[in-house]
User: Fold these one by one.
Assistant:
Number 1:
Amino acid sequence: MFSRRQFLGTSLAAPLLSASPRFRFRSDFWINLHHFVRAEARRRMLGATRALPSLEDSVLETYERHARASLIFDKELVALKDALVEGSRPSQALQRAADVYRDQIWPSQDRENRFWIERVEPSVARDSPRVMKQLGSAYGAKWLKGAILVDVCPDTGPTLAYTTGRPRGTAGHVVIDPGRCAELDVAFEIVFHEASHTVDDQIVAALNGVAARVGRKAPEDLWHAIIFHTAGFAASRARPRPDFVPYARRFNIHPQFWRALDDHWQPWLEGKISRGEALEGLVRAAYAGLRGTPLLRLEGKEYIVQDGDVLVIRHG
Ligand SMILES: [Zn+2]
């Protein structure tokens, strides 16, 4: 059986493992279970090997539609997660899954999460006042009041981490995979990348404003390429070593915008031109990099939507 005391004991009332002014890191049972059940439902749907075969099928069935949905863009799935952050009673399905998960998965997962926090948190706490200031002025954005909650948890979908909304009492909620962010440099950069997402609406608005002034539409994803570039640059400054390569450059993310970013955004980061000039140059130059980039791909009916996909449904 499940008592209120039990879930409070592992949710909001759980002692935070660490606290820095800007970030609160934690390893939370229900958030981890929620993501685990979704991932397990997805494995079942795809016929992949399950991580916890003793988990009841009826639990996984209730998560089937969440398994198809995007962790970032599906409002219902985000609301479900945010309710857990805010301390609401977990669903019946999660409560039914809790015992077997607590028994077989959680002890080692919690250990991995806490180990990650112990390694990453000190450098984030040390550098965050400076890096957050740099990022805020680079974007021309105002950080939201309060701390960004960072839940350490695997099963974040196709991305290493994701950030959504603003559950009560937070300035944004990041979920980050300790396995795929095991490398300290990657973890450090991704924490600040995800923090940038808490103000991405301001970045998009600034970009669209400049684009409208020059009579163009800002290319799709350019705002995200700006975040990758800026957080990568700030991380490389904070962790000065010759072999530091920002994540996007290492893993070939948004390469169509690299040239434009290097020519127009980087000079702003180095204080050589104004942000207005940088944004205008960037919008104009970004189109040059887009030629030859595939925008649409055809998939069959049985295709399972990936996080980040934008769908165009063909009728008839
Ligand atoms: Zn991102």
Note: The first helix runs from residue 4 to 10.
Number 2:
Amino acid sequence: MAAGRRGQGYMIGMARRTGSPDAPREGTGTHRFLALLAASFVLFAAPEPAFPESAAQNTYIRCVKNGHQQMKAGDYQAARDAFREALQYIDDDAAAHLGLGLAYFHLGDDTGAERELTRAAGISPNSWETYQWLGEVHYRQDNLEEAAQDWERAAELNPSSSEVRARLERIRREHQTEKDFNRDVTSHFLVKYEGREKIEAGKIVLRILEDAYGEVGRGLAYYPDREIQVILYSSQQFQEVTDAPGWSGGIFDGKIRIPIGGIEKETPGLRKLLFHEYTHAVVRSIVPRCPTWINEGLAQYFEGREIDAHQREIMRRMAQSGKLPSLSDLEGSFMSLNNDQAFYAYLFSLSSIRYAVDTFGMYRVKMVLEQLGSGADTGKAIDKALMISYEEFDRGWKRSLE
Ligand SMILES: [Zn+2]
């Protein structure tokens, strides 16, 4: 794909299906969207009273502000605690309930998120943000109908938000496509697909995913406690629902979505694709916002992608002539990169993660994820987990290639 433009694309993890150099691609539409909402959410803070009425009110406002700051810093546990504390002083203001709902959402507690957001909507029924987030919760619970209702309400309250309309438009297409799908479950996955001819494909996919659950789980010593949804589409449905480009082999945007024909047996390509997307799902449950080079590096690592002699030689020359980018330049989305740039970005991601695993062990790489998950920026996470600076890590990786 030329430049990774995909309309309203919500892709988070994407693997390329065919063609050399077969680098998976990535986008961060959902993250961008959530970040936008989080930014707008800050504006929706507790209203400053003209005349502070009581000590309780002042403390409430201070706690809510603190909650927002923790939220911005990505420390959702601290944010949850701050909003909970706020509610001990004033319980009938929407801001703290909304904040607490959001903190729960990011911590993966859908029950808590739904309860608090519903309460916030009850107190302040005209807040489009509240409905927007309720929609996110219901969407994650696979309750597409309620999510659509929430987003319709959000769109009514804020007709100028193109993000809300895009979300609504997409869920309608998704709902339309999936309403007649069959469902298959194991203890860790829910797989949805249409048509009896896909029953066998569904079984194969589930079997591979259970392998991935075990292998990636052992590698990262992490097993998501939430069921992961997997949706199997025909090629055409996949295009319609995801706006994904033709080469795309699958995506992870909170759910694993893959186009699948009438496969009858497991293929190495399918296995790699599912391991790749499943790794994104695991990374996402450890850290909601992960630097792309780490996320893509790990996904390729666990899919078993190798770096061939030719690629190694390219990197060696680049390392010697100082042409390798800094890893900090590979933290953002790879979406806007052209084909060539994306090939290199994926290669560097895999190479640097391999270096990290070989040098420090997967155990410490996992600690980087945990640090990121508790709100550290990349530099601090590497510093704490690997006990060297980001720059030193970057230099060490480059030296290892020469
Ligand atoms: Zn990926």
Note: The chain has three domains: 13-28+180-271, 32-170, 292-401.
